[in-house]
Design goal:
There is one protein chain. The chain is about 35% helix and about 10% strand. Helix 2 packs across helix 5 and helix 4 runs antiparallel to helix 5. The chain is elongated, with a radius of gyration of 52 Å.
Length: about 300
Amino acid sequence: MQHRLTRTFRSVLTATAIAALTTGGLALSTGTAAATTLQAGSCTAGVTGVSGDTVAITGASVKALVKAGAQEAGTLAVGDWAANDIAKVSTIEVGQVGSGTASTQVSGSAIGLAVAKALEDTGSWGLGIDRKKTLANVEKKVAGNCGLTAYASDYREPTSSEQPATQPGGSTGTQPGTGGNQGKVPGTLPLGTGSTMAPPPDYSNIPAATPGVALPPGARYGSAAPGPTSPEFGILGADPNTTQAPEVQNAGNADALAAGGQPANSVQLPMLLAVVALAGVTAALVRTWVLRKAS
């Protein structure tokens, strides 16, 4: 009977161990499958995944940049051959989605380095006589035109818990300026970003006019206001020590003067000459008109 119980107990232990190993294997496989590869549509398009995901681009998305970089290298490289070879690469890993942050920047230099490495691995015949120089120029060309952002969908904003400050002795402060619990001190406001308290401003001593009542300048602000209570402006030239203004006089007197040696209403020589000239012109016109009629 005891032997049978021992065999049963061993069977239970074996089944339990097998179940534990199976569960652990499933957990490991699940953790491995959680990390996926995010394929960006271009070398400048953003992608969204979870932390740890791999970010990749296709070789076809940088085909034009590889062609331009190879042709501009000056190494007799054939840009079309290099571009066609990189286009055959389906996946070029350029980075990962970071953890603990909402987004991760994949720089252009990282993309350029990955593209140049993938192009070198293809063994392309279009890299010219100096393969290293061509690859360096392709890397530079891609780096200057690429760059993308990887967003983490599992990122959560951290929550901060507010805790009251503790004074020496273990008690929380309840007085202004002691850095304690500010909510227990009525009539005080926080000063800056610290815990020092300042009294609220008092505007009761600022003078103000009563609405709807027009007051003279001297009575608007009362005697407490600095400066003159009723500014006034006198007349230019008046004595400030006297209250009577001086008489207003004209700036000067002017009279018309008659020409010397001439009577008051005589006709001058220029007027006579003008009349004689007008008479001569009129006579000439009349003579010309009469002669034309006679002829």
